[in-house]
Amino acid sequence: MIKLYSFWRSLATYRVRIALNLKGITADEVIDVNLMKGHQHHPAYRNVNPMMALPALLDGDGPILFESLAIIEYLDETRPEPPLLPKDARGRARARGLAQIVACDSHPLLVPRVRDYLEHQLQLPEATRMDWCRHWIAQALSALETHLKDPQTGIFCHGDEVTIADICLASQGAGARFYGVDMGPYPNVSRIIATCLELGAFASAHPLRQPGAPAA
């Protein structure tokens, strides 16, 4: 039995939903943890993930799995088809590096605990907080755009098969949309995101297609 702790707006959970879809796995139970209402701070969820972040995933008897990249690699190791990492060591390093620009460098600066700190501890106005988010999204998009000019880029981030890099790139695109970041300067990024969203595994996992998401 697979149990997924999720929230429609969570970009990290979006990544895990894509991976589950690509592997043909349907979660038996999806538990909503409303980040906007602070449900991640409730004691019941703290017992699941002391970091009070999403996603978390339980596969069978446990233990609980946490952090999106770790969960995705776990799924890839336990359900190896289709593979989400290239076969060669250099290719795997490149795909992981592209993924980590999103999941380790950019996205952690946008999550609720950071935005809450900016608002309540530093007392920054909303406009400044939005500028903060857009800045770090754009920084990552600029780096990704440069990397994706490499000849190793194909239909997708690395060659012509979906990898963990594409999963993370899709989540970066969703975040850019949430914060109104202009994607015009990033044609390679935009092309690959559009290609990914043509796949059902990506499209059906999109935040705006989840229960509780706004209509537009």
Summarize the structure.
The chain has helices at 11-22, 43-48, 68-78, 89-106, 112-121, 126-147, 164-178, 187-197, 200-203, and strands at 2-6, 29-32, 56-59, 65-66. The chain has nine helices and four strands.
Q: Could you please say which CATH topology of the largest domain applies here?
A: Glutathione S-transferase Yfyf (Class Pi), Chain A, domain 2
**CATH architect. name of the largest domain:** Up-down Bundle
- Outline type: globular
Helix content: 40-55%
Beta-strand proportion: 5-15%
Widest sheet: strand ordering: 2-1-3-4
CATH class of the largest domain, anyone?
A: Mainly Alpha
How many structural domains? 2
Q: What is the CA-CA span between the terminal residues?
A: 33 Å
Supply the number of helical segments: 9
The counted number of beta strands is 4
Overall pLDDT, averaged? 97
Low-confidence stretches: none
Rg over CA atoms, rounded to whole Å, is 17 Å
